[in-house]
Hints:
Layout: H1 2-36, H2 41-54, E1 58-66, E2 82-90, E3 93-101
Antiparallel strand pairs: 1-2, 2-3
Helix pairs in contact: 1-2
Amino acid sequence: QQLHVRWERINSRRLHVLLLRLRLWREISRAASSIEAGGALDPALDDAADRLADAGAEVEYLDLRDAATLEEIETWSAERPARIFVAIRLGEARLLDNVAVGGGSDTTVL
């Protein structure tokens, strides 16, 4: 029975990480869409960070960077391919992701 309880705890933790991973993708995709539609950069990124924190994540960084040079971008334009990069923690799990903004490639950058 102890093994069963431990297994349930492990599965529950894995499920929480999986759900947060899906939430992570949704929030950075939403921020990318907002920026592409002409929305202000800082509010789009701040909103995504707030939503991830509300879901229980510790946001380490959430930045918009030039797709080629990886320099942080203060002002985005459609002529400049960019990506949103994010790192979050949930307990011992650390999740990293990125998404294209504008002309950035849809290929995930590692």
